[in-house]
Backbone:
């Protein structure tokens, strides 16, 4: 039994296309037939992490792996990296520029929101070395 | 994929005229649920039809029509209540006031004529109460999505099932009018409620589906629906020489504007948004599903452009109709003519709530398990990767991915693809892969 994988590329500062990867992820999960609540959690995380890449990360890739019991979303970028991960996970902490905040982004809810909706979140990031988020969701039948 | 109940998938309200259809792929490309295929030179509906009529609107040869109406006994005597959609007021030009149209319907022989615009105002207020109640309790999902457009509800059930929670459990104005008319008239004249029959006059083909399908019959309450275009001429004839001086129309401009996009939220003193058109509706439903727009209280979606005045069964041009409704809006004012205390009492009594269980809209799990679906999608992916992805539709499927899926499901052949037909090597390779996954 092979897992289903799909990769998408995310372009930095492309606000016209931003969100499209999340929509594709969503559509794919729907066609697999996962329950709506799980899809909702994944798509919120996909969107938040996609927007992080678009705003801060430079170009990146999103890799989705789907198995019957688990969904993994890896979002990797070659951006500036996160200086203090613990701080970044605090609600309301934001490094977004005023320009992005004017566009309605950068409320400091991105990573906290991902943490809240995911079953597991691994952040692998060093300043200047880019960021890799590994977000996993478990699917247990009937729950 | 979650599927809508079987009997609906089999009975779309759309008919394709085989003599007119030349097998072009315009409707197939337009269908938001990818339900149409072109096989043997003819378009046909194979998937789930949500009755949005995008195919009918786009067909260059007018081969597609919406069915489901019967002409017999429209004016069936004193036990028939007629309840026209508020869109009807926008159809007869600026010289015909809403009350004239309602009186013309009486003159045509309908025993009772019930206006929906006043109930629409009541509904607005109920929505306000619902938002206030549940924002405080924090126990529901925001933004709420208006349950008024039946195609939006179908679309949510089919493509966005997680958003069913965003539909407030309120009955729509047309449902309330129908329910109350039956109740009141049967009480007043001593009929049994089932003897009173309600006829909706509607701009919307999806309405008839709600009435006809057995699952919905219990909830829809109305017995019949007729398109505005079918009854238009009779109303026009009866508009002259009305001697009746009854007042049947009671609403302000707010209730009258429901037919156009933005008309529903015009009466709401909240953070709202109105979206119209199929593509925009899908876009905004996607946004809501991704957790955006949660700062909004209420989103009005209508799949017809400019709202119900753009419905397939209308007669007047939708932009003229819009202007007319705006004009009536000014004429009748925006001061709501409802008694607030009465509405609050009725709300507490549950008068506005529907007993409809919306999870009924989505029925049956996919026949395949999740593991089988993953397996299938992997095979689909292998075929798609071998294709040039021109998305030409010449195979008779709306896009390459759907084509690959249909091949796996045995609904069509790899040779249907113009590209593969000329490349025997890829063809044999794919064939063996499909056989031995």
Residues:
């Amino acid at each position: 039994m092979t897992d289903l994988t799909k990769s998408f590329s995310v372009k930095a500062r492309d606000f016209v296309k931003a969100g499209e990867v999340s929509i594709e992820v969503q559509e794919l999960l729907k066609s697999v037939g996962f329950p709506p609540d799980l899809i909702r959690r994944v798509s919120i995380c996909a969107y938040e992490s996609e927007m992080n890449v678009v705003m801060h990360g430079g170009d990146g890739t999103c890799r989705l792996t789907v198995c019957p019991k688990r969904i993994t979303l890896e979002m990797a970028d070659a951006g500036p990296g996160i200086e203090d991960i613990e701080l970044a996970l605090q609600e309301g902490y934001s490094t977004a520029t005023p320009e992005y905040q004017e566009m309605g982004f950068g409320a400091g809810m991105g990573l906290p929101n991902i943490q809240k909706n995911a079953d597991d979140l691994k952040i692998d990031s060093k300043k200047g070395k880019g960021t890799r988020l590994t977000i996993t969701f478990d699917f247990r039948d009937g729950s | 994929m979650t599927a809508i109940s079987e009997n609906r998938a089999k009975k779309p309200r759309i008919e394709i005229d085989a003599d007119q259809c030349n097998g072009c792929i315009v409707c197939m490309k337009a269908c938001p649920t990818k339900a149409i295929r072109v096989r043997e030179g003819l378009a046909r509906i194979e998937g789930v039809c949500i009755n949005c009529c995008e195919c009918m609107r786009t067909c260059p040869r007018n081969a597609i029509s919406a069915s489901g109406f019967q002409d017999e006994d429209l004016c069936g005597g004193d036990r028939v209540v007629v309840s026209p959609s508020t869109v009807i007021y926008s159809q007869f030009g600026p010289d015909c006031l809403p009350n004239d149209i309602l009186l013309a319907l009486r003159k045509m022989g309908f025993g009772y004529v019930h206006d929906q615009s006043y109930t629409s105002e009541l509904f607005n207020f109920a929505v306000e109460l619902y938002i206030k109640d549940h924002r405080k309790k924090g126990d529901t999902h925001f933004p709420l999505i208006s349950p008024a457009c039946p195609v939006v509800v179908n679309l949510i059930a089919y493509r966005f099932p997680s958003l069913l929670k965003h539909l407030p459990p309120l009955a729509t104005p047309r449902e309330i009018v129908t329910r109350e008319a039956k109740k009141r008239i049967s009480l007043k004249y001593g009929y049994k409620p089932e003897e009173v029959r309600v006829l909706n006059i509607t701009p919307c083909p999806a309405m008839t589906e709600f009435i006809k399908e057995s699952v919905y019959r219990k909830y829809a309450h109305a017995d019949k629906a007729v398109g505005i275009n079918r009854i238009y001429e009779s109303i026009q004839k009866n508009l002259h020489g009305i001697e009746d001086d009854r007042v049947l129309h009671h609403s302000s401009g707010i209730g009258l504007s429901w037919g156009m996009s933005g008309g529903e939220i015009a009466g709401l003193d909240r953070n709202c948004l109105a979206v119209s058109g199929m593509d925009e509706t899908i876009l905004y439903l996607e946004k809501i599903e991704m957790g955006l727009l949660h700062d909004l209280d209420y989103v009005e979606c209508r799949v017809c452009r400019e709202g119900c005045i753009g419905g397939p069964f209308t007669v007047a041009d939708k932009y003229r109709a819009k202007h007319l409704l705006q004009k009536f809006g000014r004429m009748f004012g925006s001061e709501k003519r409802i008694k607030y205390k009465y509405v609050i009492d009725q709300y507490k009594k549950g008068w506005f709530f529907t007993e409809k269980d919306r999870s009924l809209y989505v029925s049956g799990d996919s026949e395949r398990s999740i593991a089988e679906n993953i397996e299938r999608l992997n095979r689909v992916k292998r075929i798609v990767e071998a294709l040039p992805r021109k998305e030409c539709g010449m195979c008779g499927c709306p896009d390459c991915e759907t084509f690959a899926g249909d091949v796996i499901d045995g609904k069509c052949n790899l040779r249907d693809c113009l590209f593969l037909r000329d490349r025997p090597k890829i063809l044999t390779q794919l064939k063996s892969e499909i056989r031995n996954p």
